[in-house]
Amino acid sequence: MKDLSKVNNPYGDDKVISQCSIFGMMNTTGEVFSGKEIITAIRNMHERGNGLGGGFAIYGCYPDYPDDYCLQVMFDTRANREETEIYLKRFFHIQHSEEIPTCPTEVIKNPPDVYRYFVQPKVEELHEIISDDDIVIRRVMKINTTLDGAYVFSSGKNMGVFKGVGFPEEIADYFCLEQYDGYIWTAHGRFPTNTQGWWGGAHPFSLLDWTVVHNGEISSYGANRRFLEMYGYICTMHTDTEVVAYAIDLLARKHGLPVDTVMDIFSPPVWEQIDRMDPDDRKYFEVLRSTYGPLLLNGPFAVIIAHHGEMVAHTDRIRLRPMVAGIKGDMVYASSEESAIRLVSKDLEKVWIPVGGHPVIARLKELAKDDVVEGGRELLKAEGMEV
Amino acid sequence: MNTAQAKKANPRKGLSPRQWIKIDASGMYYKDLNRQIRGLAEQGARKFDLQNVYGQRYIGTNLWATERDKIRIRVHGTPGSDMGAFMDGPEIEVYGNAQDATGNTMNCGKIVIHGSAGDVLGYGMRGGEIYIRGNVGYRVGIHMKEYDDKIPTIVVGGTVQDFFGEYMAGGRIIVLNKFFEGNPPVRQSYFIGTGMHGGNIYFRGDVNIEQIGAEVNVIEPTDAEWKIIERYVHNYCKAFDLGERKVKLLKREKFWRLYPKSTRPYGMLYAY
Hints:
Chain A is of the alpha+beta class and 387 residues long. Helices cover 26% and strands 27% of the residues of chain A.
């Protein structure tokens, strides 16, 4: 494993009380918009973070390279970068590469170099049939675990993750995010509790085009991690949230489960409730819990998960971390605090607090009949709390 | 009106306690907003009208008020979490929704919310009253307590969610379950009153045994308790201009009183 001693924590404290802020917004017609509003919204929740991590995920931001995997990679030193580039050239056709433009400011201390590479995997002479996605995952895992001073922030097509140590609004300034356009944006302000505040440990966590921003603590990290390692996912970022990104890739992409089923695996009802269900529903949850028990996420959490076409706001089953959702026209919002949504969207048509463990799912209209699932499972006759 | 203007308006006597002072909270950091309110109150102001509130926390904290000398705060917008935390006397009226942890450990005073409120409202509340027109989130009224004549009271017009009144040690909560909205369907909440060892919940509508904690008994309210319920529903109607005639339509037989079986449910937990 790599040396993580280069930890960029200007305060030197290692444990503080937890909050974190998360925010997500999506245009369900796929129309892109700038980062101005999400930066305003996440700045409004400044108090929830402590400056030890901030980050953004943007979908639809690289329309010039829509079919290439965009690897956004952080390097500690120039030598680390050169070594990694040799590795990348060996396994990928690099269509285009550049240093990610930054606007250095005083508040961002000791930033690493962050580069992006638009790549296509080289056809490998393998004794197995493997998809491009899986080749990319394999290489990302390899870079993260074996190459010194190199960490892949994101590896999806036409999307990118921008993150670092600082308040999210400072990270947005640093990466000039007002200049980007996307149809889904998610953001995170960090208040690290159990692990150090370092650049790679900031949210979003990402694999391919999956991204996760998370408020809370995944107490089941150890069990989840062991299960995922059996499938070749190696946790390298020293933060619990990482398992969510890998778990959703395994369940949704590799095992082909719909996102709402994945959320039922993450936050199933307690057995007592399952026992009271009618036979079909009981069977459904019994099967999920016995097959994927080790991927149950325990502990307090609220997450916003995104990939192309979908944004999912989800909490643990007893909602130990806050989540508010809102709708205005084609825009769907999810946030830790209602005030942040209202600040950027004055005349919301609907604001509600989803029931714990019931995801709010926003989808591209062209892909789905229901472009918004409002956080209630039909089978439980659940009703989101209208506010 | 800022402090300097206020002084100019009434330079000798300080500020008038009768005049509503408007404060535009747009873009204000919560500490600055609360400091400004405190400063104006020290100069004699008693009525504050806060405009464009977006998430500023701890509104109503660190102020004082007595029966004769009330501080009143109107909030337009969405106040931040911990509104009225440790509050000791003032009255807050919110024209919108409140976020999480409203009335946290509140000691005295009144909060009226015209919308809904988030999770953990009234946590550890020790006195005062909170009226919510709409719904409340998870873990509302947990660990409320009472002493002598200090009995904190929460009235919820809409619905409550799971862990309602968990570890409740005193005080009372009245849940109307959308009575004034004509009883639309209500999501069942679970783990009501888990670990409860004091206080009373008056719940309108059916409660199934699987919804409540093992430490809770369910019984019909007594005559004296019904009077208390009526009084607080009356206050609720007054706070939200709902017409007092409707109180008469409330049916006593629809209410259940949830109360603890024991004042020390876990006294023997480690005894064996």
